Amino acid sequence: MSIKKKTPLRTCIACREISGKRGLVRVVRTPQGRVELDPTGRAAGRGAYLCPQVSCLSATLSGNQIEHILKVKISPEDRADLNTALGELLKEQAIV
Predict the structure, then answer these.
(1) Is there a contact between 46 and 9 (Cβ–Cβ < 8 Å)?
(2) Residue 81: enclosing H or E segment and its boundaries?
């Protein structure tokens, strides 16, 4: 008999679609209060997941939805860094 591993499921905070953890992008609030992209999915802190689609990423960054989910006020510098990191991620996916 083979044992099946359960695939961890997460919900995109923008479109509310449930997907596998590996297929989503994790944004984390670090213990220092910064908001960063977490490419490994294992960084310490409160996390939120996004679909790697332009519509979900732009909807989340344009409003304050991510601030509400992560329970932190995002500084303009962190917002700019997050914007560039997510933009680079989208470029990488467009190439592949």
Answers:
(1) no
(2) helix 76-95
Q: CATH 3.30.1230.10: does it fit domain 9-95?
A: yes
How many residues are there in the chain? Answer: 96
Q: Is the dihedral of CA 16, 19, 20, 22 positive or negative?
A: negative
Enumerate the domain spans of the chain.
9-95
Contact status, residue 52 vs residue 23, Cβ threshold 8 Å: yes
pLDDT for position 96 = 63
Full-model pTM: 0.86
pLDDT digits (tens, 9 = 90+) for 60-94: 878 888 999 999 999 899 989 988 998 888 888 77
